[in-house]
Design brief:
Blueprint: H1 2-8, E1 19-29, E2 32-33, E3 38-45, E4 48-53, E5 61-65, E6 70-75, E7 80-83, H2 86-103, E8 112-122, E9 125-134, E10 137-144, H3 155-161, H4 163-167, H5 169-175, E11 180-190, E12 193-206, E13 221-224
Parallel strand pairs: 7-13
Antiparallel strand pairs: 1-2, 1-3, 1-12, 3-4, 4-5, 5-6, 6-7, 8-9, 9-10, 10-11, 11-12
Helix pairs in contact: 1-2
Length: 225
């Protein structure tokens, strides 16, 4: 669901020239993974964002040009770029973020924050862990302090989608953590059943990103949704 990705994307870079990272998201029910997980790749530069899913790069992609108010779905097999209706994307993102927020108690949620013991190395970076808890929901976030990025790189996207308002206190608490989140584990218990969504960054590079990642390739057909 989009809300799981949004929690992962609540990681943002203040002043960084650009960012690329690879991430794997796994859903577990009663401690058992429901599948091998979903791999994704994200490119970010200023107010431009590209997201790909799948095991190999170069597959279908979603490109958000917030600088132009446009959203594009790229299909390399058909060499077609489809101009999407931004209002539909915003409605879906807001809906999924609202679901995540409601599981934690909505706008009235009171979050308790505690440091987790020990350290972990994720994507080559030493991380500290923190747990945010409200009711039957817990969010564990492991952050790296050595990256020139903090909790704030996709703020433009979150504001554009309406997710920032829907996630409310949870997003604010994640942004206050002292580093860039490299793993986010959301654990929810509903009617006695526990489900976990774990998003782990497996590779990350900070630096300028190729402009062509955010453009429609030459010779492609452009259609409207």
């Amino acid at each position: 669901m989009i809300h799981a990705a949004l929690l992962g994307l609540a990681l943002t870079a203040a002043g960084a020239p650009g960012l690329y990272f690879e991430q794997t998201t796994v859903v577990r029910k009663a401690g058992v993974a429901t599948g091998p997980g979903v791999r994704s790749r994200v490119w970010h530069a200023a107010r431009r964002l590209r997201l790909e899913a799948g095991d190999a790069p170069g597959g279908p992609a979603l490109v958000l040009r917030l600088d132009e108010g446009r959203a594009l779905r790229l299909d390399p097999e058909e060499r077609v770029a489809v101009e999407l209706d931004p209002s539909r994307l915003r409605a879906r993102a807001h809906q999924d973020a609202s679901v995540a927020a409601s599981l934690m108690g909505g706008d009235e949620v009171t979050l308790r924050k505690a440091a987790l013991e020990g350290q972990r190395t994720i994507a080559g970076h030493v991380c500290r862990g923190f747990r945010l808890r409200s009711g039957e929901t817990a969010v564990d976030v492991w952050v790296a302090e050595d990256l020139p990025a903090g909790a704030g790189l996709f703020a433009d996207f979150l504001e554009w989608s309406g997710a920032a308002q829907a996630l409310g206190p949870l997003l604010a608490a994640i942004r206050e953590l002292p580093g860039f989140p490299l793993e986010t584990r959301v654990r929810v218990s509903v009617l006695g059943e526990t489900q976990e969504t774990v998003a782990t960054v497996t590779a990350i590079r900070v630096g300028p990103q190729p402009a062509e990642r955010f453009e429609v390739p030459a010779g492609w057909r452009l259609e409207r949704e």
